[in-house]
Design a protein that fits this description.
The structure is a homodimer.
Chain A (H helix, E strand, L loop, with lengths): L4 H6 L3 H12 L3 H10 L7 E6 L6 H20 L11 E6 L26 E6 L7 H15 L4 E6 L4 H8 L3 E6 L6 H5 L9 E4 L7 H13 L12 E3 L8 H14 L3 H30 L4 H10 L5 H14 L1
Parallel strand pairs in A: 1-4, 1-5, 2-3, 2-4, 5-6, 6-7
Chain lengths: 327, 327
Amino acid sequence: MTPTLGERVLAGDPRAIARAISLIEDEDPASAELVRAIFGHTGRAYLVGVTGPPGAGKSTLVDRLVAAFRAGARAVQTSDAAAPSRPAVGVIAVDPTSPFSGGAVLGDRLRMQAHAQDPGVFIRSMATRGHLGGLARATGDAALVLDAAGVETIVIETVGVGQDEVDIIRTADVAIVTLVPGTGDEVQALKAGIMEIADIFVVNKADREGADRLVSAVDANLALHSYASGEWRPPIVKTVATSGAGVPELVSAIGAFREHSRGVQTSRRKARSEYRLRELVAQRFMSHLEREVLATGELAGIVDRVASREVDPYTAANDLLTRALRR
Amino acid sequence: MTPTLGERVLAGDPRAIARAISLIEDEDPASAELVRAIFGHTGRAYLVGVTGPPGAGKSTLVDRLVAAFRAGARAVQTSDAAAPSRPAVGVIAVDPTSPFSGGAVLGDRLRMQAHAQDPGVFIRSMATRGHLGGLARATGDAALVLDAAGVETIVIETVGVGQDEVDIIRTADVAIVTLVPGTGDEVQALKAGIMEIADIFVVNKADREGADRLVSAVDANLALHSYASGEWRPPIVKTVATSGAGVPELVSAIGAFREHSRGVQTSRRKARSEYRLRELVAQRFMSHLEREVLATGELAGIVDRVASREVDPYTAANDLLTRALRR
């Protein structure tokens, strides 16, 4: 009997993994069935979230991290002759929605070339047109696929610093915020709301002028909080991703945080589950409303009436909710 | 009789505007009532969206734009002695969620000092903890308040380049994407998914090395599209916001786009109405589910079961939906 897609994912087949993530990205109905099938086999991978403003060198940094994780994983995997081609490290690069094409603008074509020939590394860009947390849901499901496939470490990289991206990264097991000196405007980088999600700060391009000033600025910001005894104070790691300098220290910091947070990790994973469940319920309800409650084109008519100020959006929303719940 | 908050907003009272936006930001139930009361008086303001990566100098640029709009508006307003203190220009600066404090990290304290004493300019930072488009909803409602108060031009500035921020900006009447040379990594800026939402590109800090290279890169990207005759091709405006150079050209470009898009604007406003309606319906449904359908703590229990892999999120979401619709 031909194995199902879920079975092939569980066996670690890279082509099945790629196919599964495409179904998720396309919001194909089969993707829900797939997640159902694999879900019981997930929860073992460690999720590393990396975010920061564009131009911070995140891609190169992630590249270095992957190499480091890969070196660690390879030592283990050589003793497992049964699954030589199962990827050990996964990368999900989240690109903000491209509203017109719906696709990653440059995607993985320009990046991660160093690992292109390594079957132990699985790399994927994600983008989606969906509303209501579609990107977060797709990212979460893609991580589940890699997790079920036996990937040990999954790096999730977001290029944005928006609310969705912050939500994605803060639900990872460890959240790394990458900053860069010399944009002449450290305050801008710091105000982006990403300070408070960091478990680890990276000051990349640390050979640039202003690196120490940026480290001091971040440190001063951290000093505003009072950390309780035993509470994790995010370390600030200086790296030069292009040369690899500082990357071993970053890997150590990730390891230290992982050790420190063995208990905390459970609450982080609960937060992740809650976030995904909420997004999913809301999305399902909207599908139900459009497909089962409203006639074709009816929502567009209501939107027209809101746009022309005949009805306010709160009244319209309440009417729609009442209709959906009455059936 | 004491005038209601809505009446005071309609009269252009800056303190009422500030109070109304605070209600919206706090997701106070009274805010829905307020939007209902003022909604019929909205739809006249022109919404200018400004986005771009951190460090692009957006705040300074917006500052300059406000001064230019203010100068234009003042000429009109001096003849209207009846409402001398009604703001003519509004600024809503959207900060990504700060998950722990829920507040704008630096907010408007550090910015817009030039207009602090000008009653004709109303400036407000927005941040929210809410899920499911809470930030977009709050921003949209705050714009409605300013619109109802008679504000002619509303600038919405987002610091992020994430999905929510893209959604906010693309529903403005004109979307301005600000880029900056010399981050050494133009590709990163371009891949951020913000290329395709731009009606106008700004290359700010255009006195920096690499400005012309960035202009060429954007232009080359635009050349990949084939623009039909009469179709708007986004112009690329070079500015130095700190000195004001290029700002008159940017104001002209906004005027030209506004003229060009008189018909298109309707569909843009429909898109904005649809986006807000969808967010609102989804949010209302989730509130209904938690308050009317589930017992206190029940959602947390379901989340626990998902987190521990007893049930997959799709099955859990379907169960919740079925229960909500059965009543």
